Structures are given as C-alpha cells and as structure tokens.
Amino acid sequence: MRDWDSHAGVPLLRGVVRGVLDLAELDDLHAFRLPYPPEAQRALNEITLCCLVRGARPPRSLPDFLSWCRERPVEDWPIELPPDAVAPGQYLIDDESSHPTTFCYEWAMEGPDSSVREEVYGLIQTAAELSAQAALPESYPAFRRLLVEQPVIDQAGLFRIATDQFLDPVRDLVGSVFRQTSDTYLCHGAYTPCRRCAMLLTPMPDGGWWCENDACRRLGAPLPGKPLVAEQAGVVHHLDRALRQFVTGPGRVVLELEARLRALGIETELWPVREACDVMVVLPDGHVWTIEVKDHANPALLGRLAERERARSSRGEDFWVVPNYRVEQCPGYVATFERYSSENAGGLRLLTDDDLVKALTRRVNRRARRQGGENVA
C-alpha cells in the first residue's frame, strides 16, 4: 500500500526495533549501563516525544521502556501504524526469555535501509556468486544446508567444515556468520540444542527451557537434545540470530517440502546456484516452478518484503511459500499479503506448503491421466 510510509509510527517503530536489537547485542536485555547505544537512546527519545505529543505517559527510563517492549503489545502503543502492520498480542521482546521476538526481527527487515535485510540477502547472494565463480555449483547448496542443519557448531564441527571441499569457495563466509556462543545459553557447564530445530535452548530460572523457534514452541514444551559440555566441546559457535530466523527456520521447511515432494515422485533441486530460489521443480512436461520459502508471522510485513524483492526468476512460475500453521494462526493471511504486495510484486503468488504440495500433485496426476488416455487410444 502506497501510504505505508505516511504513517508517523512506521519510522518510529523502525527506530525502536533498531534500538532493541542494538541492546540485544549486549547479550542480556536486563544488563546494560550508560552510555546507552546510540540507536537505543534515539528510540527512547522518539517514543518519549511521541507520548508527550499524544498526551500519553512516556517511559521513565530505558529499562522502563524495555518493560514496555516485554509487557505491552505494540498495538497498544500511542503510535500511528498502517492497518495490519501489527497483529494483536505482538511484542518486541519475549517476556520469558528477554530475547527479541520473531515480530521484532520481521520489523527489522522492513524499510529501505534495513541492515538486517542487507545482512541476510547479501550473504546469500555472495555465497551463490562465490560458488558460481569457483565453478563448484555444489558449494552453494552445501552452504545453505549447513546453515539449516548445523546452526550450532563445536570445535570438532569447525574442523569438519575446514576439511569439506564443497565449502572451499565459501569458507570465509562460514567464519563470518558463526559467533562465539553467549553464556546466557550455558546451564550447568553445557549448551543444550533443541532436538527439533537444532538451535540452542535458553535455560529458564525455573529449570525449564525456551526455544526461539516459533514452529517449535507451537508444538509444546521444548525437547532438549544432547548437551554440548563446554569443557569437551571447546568454543561453541551459534549462527547469527537474524540468519537463524530468516535462513535456518525457513530452510527446515524447505527440507520438509523436499521430502514430501520426493515421496510423490516429484523431482526437486534445492538452492540451485543458477536460480534465485529455494526449491526448483521441473515437471514432467518441462515446466518449471521456482519456490522461495518464507516464515513470517506478519503477512503485511511479508507483503512489503515482496514489493522490494519481487519475483526474481524468469524460467517459469514463481511462488512464495509459508508454513501452513502461519496462515492458520492469522485469519486473512494471504489476502493481507496480497494487499501489501500486489502493486509491484510481479504476479508473485503466495501459497502454504500444504497448498503447494496439493497443486503439484494435481498437476502431475492430470498429466498421468492424459498420458494414460493417449496410451489407451
């Protein structure tokens, strides 16, 4: 929608999100001291001014403002935002873990100067280019699969990566996206990955665990995997948080989608270096479907992203796919996405993973029936 940026709350919320993420870089949103990071101080100043203009009570301090972000849904803030920019019950900081939420990172992807978007898509584009330049097309999908399947790496894992010839062209990139793990994940001398998504679990004061992955949390209590004992594992590295959300999470959906399509006899190619997509399907009639998997909770923000990205393949039909549970959780998801993306997204279609599998199944079955009829004739 063209009037998105005409709402005064849009640049304000962008600034607040940058401030929250800057503070999160300190590893603990409870532990910070003066001077505050510049973006955090700027966000506090702007939200205070907005409250005063609107006759609302402003936060008393930065700690008080962070309490807002944990305890007050953004829909209740005294700021003006476009319709559907915020859904009910969306916060910037998770109250249990004090980590920035999925919604916070989705807003960090929004805007013309998003450093998070540049980080994520710049990395992916660079990896594809390095793989192509080295004439080693297997390198790019190997890199993508690494980020999906191993978001946590110990010293032994780093050695395996160093000796993997397929990763030679992108080895420097691998070193740039894994960071030494924060002690906030350490519990009784060990780091514990999630058995479902392989990301590190955050230990809670009550002895439980918290998983940052929305898909895991909707399935119930976290399932702790095999702990990485610090003394034995050496330095443990965790993939950068934005990449875990926008590459690792959707990548798991990609692998699940591949398995479902192969079970139906549909051949797929994951992360082809020559195509800007996650999955390429070449149908028996030679027609090509290129599929990019997204995992956004907010469809308006996903639509905004589509306006900036557009459809990037020219070989066939382009689709963006979201996990079915996202659409179930948000009535009108696809309609909202289309409302915010239709003007410039180049005819890009959005489907759930379930709907994509059904559509491909119908297409393959129709062709099989036609061929059967021709054989009988």
TrEMBL record:
Which segments constitute the pPIWI-RE three-gene island domain?
Answer: 12-153
| Coiled coil segments of this chain | none
Report the protein name in the record: REase associating with pPIWI RE domain-containing protein
Pfam families reported in the protein's UniProt record: pPIWI_RE_REase, pPIWI_RE_Y
Q: Where is the REase associating with pPIWI RE domain?
A: 251-367
